[in-house]
Write a structure and sequence with these properties.
The complex is a heterodimer of chains A (131) and B (367). Chain A is mainly beta and 131 residues long. In chain A, 3% of the residues lie in helices and 50% in strands. In chain A, strands 1-2-9-6-7 form a 5-stranded antiparallel β-sheet. Chain A has a 4-stranded antiparallel β-sheet with strand order 5-4-10-11, with no helix packed on it. Chain A is globular. The N and C termini of chain A lie far apart (32 Å). By secondary structure, chain B is of the alpha/beta class. Chain B folds into 2 domains: 8-182 and 260-360, TIM Barrel; 188-254, no CATH class. In chain B, helix 10 (223-239) runs antiparallel to helix 11 (246-255). In chain B, 50% of the residues are buried. The chains are: A mainly beta (131), B alpha/beta (367). Chains A and B meet through strand 10 and strand 11 of A and helix 1 of B.
């Protein structure tokens, strides 16, 4: 588990009331969209509503409902995905606390309670990146 | 008694997951580093970790470059670790026919990249292995099902597979023995990691006592016993006011540190085609404090084993304060000493390794 690397330092962007941050997989191997079961994004303690969250990988953007069916696009361990959601970020040049929670399924470990899933979170402080 | 074995030294790139995830090495850079360090000649990697687009988007240009690179640095491909992702979909588990096709695509890539073995996993039933035998024959790849904690060589699921192998009588069906099934203690480096996360000495002592009790009782022979032990770690963490550590204790305490005696490997030894030299750390005296590396190497030598041992360092999950390359170097030195003490040696010469591996396995992979 490599939870401390979920959020990529310095990748916070903000536009039109939405925030986005690059995230890394906290696991050693690629997983398809169907195994990326959920996420949460908070900026300075304010959480983006779940229905506004979007996941971008391999140049394609998905809602989390769409990811459930997605078994063709895979999140490779060296690639960053982009998690975005509707949450305000002050453009005042100050540091912001970014928190990301991730829930992923481990598709080859089947327990008595179903497919194993793990939940990891990461918090980092950064300014909005200049583009 | 068979002639003494000469296991082939090797490594899996999984040992360096933290360095590769940090983008310190790309695949080619990591392979060159492994060769330069002398961690081969055997090389294993995990398809879904190391190969972008695995398995359906691996083209012939990549496959050709990969083979040329291994030839240039004189490493010997041993096993491609493939995954049995039966839980890929959210609505249901994969059907039998879907599983066979899912595995076929990965086994084909193993053959194209020059790996004579595909490591498969315990979700495959005896029926699934029987269905995959024609695939193994088509591609000339040995399927070596990994026996990993919480299973072990004498576990009911493993014995059922062994019995089917015996009926089918094909040299292409076998096992990968993972030393994590036969561990003798809770890894000290993981205790240190919990200490760094604020776990009290009292709690850590209780974790060790719980694990030692399971070790004394013997390994779980059924899934039910495994489930009880998993729950016991979660309960312990809760009672000590650290429920946040419960799942971690349970996953590691049952899934990484299997408490079976090393004699359990004898149940399946004739079918062991590949070995994961799983370990968690090397101490200041050069020993592995929780995996009986010396005894395990001696057992392979005495059993006449001439396949590869992939050193598989798994302490990277929690150990972010030591260099994995130093740790693997230390473990391979220990393996060489153990083989010498058993009256044999580890094979480190690539030419010798190629010849031995080809005779150890039924036939070379067809590319």
């Amino acid at each position: 588990m490599i939870a401390d690397r979920i959020i990529e330092q310095g990748t916070l962007t903000a536009q039109d009331g939405h925030a986005a941050v690059e995230v890394r997989i906290p696991w050693y191997r690629a997983l398809p969209g169907s195994c990326i079961a959920g996420a949460a994004l908070s900026i300075d303690g304010t959480q983006a509503p779940a229905n506004t969250l979007r996941w971008t990988m391999n140049g394609r953007t998905f809602s989390f409902d769409e990811l459930v069916q997605e078994t063709d696009e895979w999140w490779f361990p060296l690639d960053s995905a982009i998690l975005s959601g509707q949450v305000p970020v002050g453009q005042d040049g100050t540091e912001h606390e970014v928190q990301v929670e991730l829930k992923i399924y481990i598709p080859y470990i089947i327990t008595d309670h179903g497919v194993l899933h793990i939940e990891e979170s990461d918090t980092k402080t950064m300014k909005v990146a200049q583009r | 008694m068979s002639a003494l074995g000469t296991p082939i030294q090797g490594v899996t790139l999984y040992s360096f997951t933290r360095a590769s995830h940090a983008r310190h090495y790309d695949l080619e850079g990591l392979i060159r580093k492994v060769a330069a360090e002398g961690f081969g000649p055997g090389l294993e990697l995990i398809g879904f970790s190391s190969l972008r687009g695995f398995p359906n988007r691996i083209d012939d240009i990549f496959a050709g470059r990969f083979r040329e690179l291994l030839q240039e640095v004189d490493l010997v491909p041993t096993s491609l670790a493939v995954n049995v992702d039966t839980g890929l979909r959210r609505d249901r588990l994969m059907r039998h026919d879907e599983t066979v096709e899912y595995m076929r695509a990965q086994i084909e890539v193993a053959a194209r990249l020059g790996f004579p073995i595909a490591r498969v996993q315990i979700s495959l039933t005896p029926d699934a292995m029987e269905s995959l035998l024609p695939v193994a024959e088509k591609y000339g790849v040995t399927l070596a099902l990994e026996v990993h904690a919480d299973q072990h060589g004498a576990h009911e699921r493993v014995l059922a597979l062994r019995d089917r192998y015996e009926q089918l009588d094909s040299p292409l069906l076998g096992f990968t023995a993972d030393w994590g099934a036969t561990v003798t203690g809770f890894a000290p480096s993981l205790l240190e990691a919990y200490r760094r996360r604020g776990a009290s000495e009292e709690l850590l002592g209780a974790v060790v006592d719980l694990w030692d009790g399971f070790y004394a009782e013997g390994p779980p022979n059924t899934q039910a016993v495994h489930g009880e032990r998993f729950g016991a770690f979660i309960g312990l963490a809760g009672r000590h006011g650290r429920p946040d550590l419960g799942i971690d204790f349970a996953i590691n305490g049952t899934g990484l540190f299997g408490p079976a005696p090393i004699e359990t490997w004898q149940e399946i030894m004739p079918w062991v085609r590949h070995v994961h030299g799983k370990f968690f750390g090397i101490d200041e005296t050069g020993e592995e404090p929780s995996v009986p590396v010396r005894g395990l190497v001696a057992q392979l030598v005495e059993s006449g084993y001439n396949g590869a041992i992939s050193s598989e360092y798994e302490g990277w999950h929690w150990n972010n304060w030591q260099d994995p390359f130093d740790i693997v170097r230390g473990e391979q030195a220990l393996q060489r000493v153990a083989a010498a003490d058993a009256g044999s040696c580890m094979i480190t010469d690539p030419t010798q390794a190629r010849e031995l591996l080809h005779s150890h396995l039924a036939q070379p992979a067809r590319g």
